[in-house]
Amino acid sequence: MKYSTAIVGAFALCVSEVVAFPAAAIEYAAKAERDARTNEELESAIASFEKTRRAVGFDAAAHGNDYKVIIKQFEQMFALQPDAATANYDLSVLTPFRADRFQQSVSENPYFFNGAFTGVAVQPAAYTFIYRFMGNKSAEYPEGRLDQETLKSFFSVTGTPGNFKWTEGYEKIPDNWYKRAIGDEYTIPFFLTDLLAAAAQYPKFLSIGGNTGTVNSFTGVDPADLTGGVFNADTLLEGNNAVCYIFQLAEQMAPDVLKGILTDVTRPMDMLTQGITQVLKPYNCPVLQDIDKSQFAQFPGAKGAY
Ligand SMILES: *[C@@H]1O[C@H](CO)[C@@H](O)[C@H](O)[C@H]1NC(C)=O
Asked: Is the pLDDT of residue 305 over 70?
């Protein structure tokens, strides 16, 4: 159930122009309890929230114990801004944290796979959402300040470093917390700007590929091989190529991910295709008809995970 709602969250990301989670999600939860019609939206809202938490509880499946992983990762993230008076977990903090998590997966998980859909297109949201949504907006910090107490509240963590305690289900918007200003919504183009800024800093984020069965064996697929030459590594960061590459690949790879989780993928795929078409409309992408999936054969972790 959890895994499938996480995927619904990924759809929410792809199909809605404004992704107003997770803060609004929790507000919504209170109102929606008695309103069945909003249940579907609510589920995706909460799934998105779970996804942000997953950024901290990375690779829980590989580690078995969700709870311990969450606390361990939370400790590491928290420690990046140790001074309570000045702490701000913004993207300048979270992007290097994501790079460390990526590296940690490469060095600890022999089956680590960075797929187009789950890895390249959706995973950045798990990090950018933390700051973009949880940051407390004010005149002084129009893009938000995410301090220690706010972070703990959203993640349902209490206690102090070394003694943190995570209580599932007690995520809370702190009192006197201010969401994004009207007109400054976190839109898909805004998200893409964040995604590309992170990739410019850490090109490995765009690298579709994985470990080949042992740790530290990360091998990236050559974009030209994968796409029959429609895209290539040399020009991937030029113009709109990266956005076109990621989202067209995500669309090609999504059915395989979904088949492993849902019995009927038709409707979700329609939504995803529509969403991606919408996202890519302004970008004038080269046409990608097909990809060479045999490129993934070398990655045991790719099975059903892209
Ligand atoms: C959010 O920012 C406002 C303005 O600086 C402040 O009054 C309020 O206490 C802050 N809220 C939280 C939860 O930090």
From this structure: no
Q: What is the pTM of this model?
A: 0.78
Question: Ligand 1, atom 5: nearest CA belongs to which residue?
Answer: 138
Residues 6+ apart with CB under 8 A from 103: none
Domain count of the chain? 1
Ligand 1 pocket member 177 (CB < 6 A): yes
- Cα 82 to averaged position of ligand 1 atoms, centre (Å): 19
150 lines ligand 1 (CB under 6 A): yes
pLDDT tens column, 35-75: 433 344 444 544 554 555 455 443 434 444 455 556 777 88
State the residue range of the domain holding 36: 3-302
- Assign residue 191 the CATH number of its domain: 1.10.489
Q: Which residues pair with 114 in a beta bridge?
A: 209
Rounded to 10 degrees, the C-alpha dihedral 224/221/129/97 comes to -130
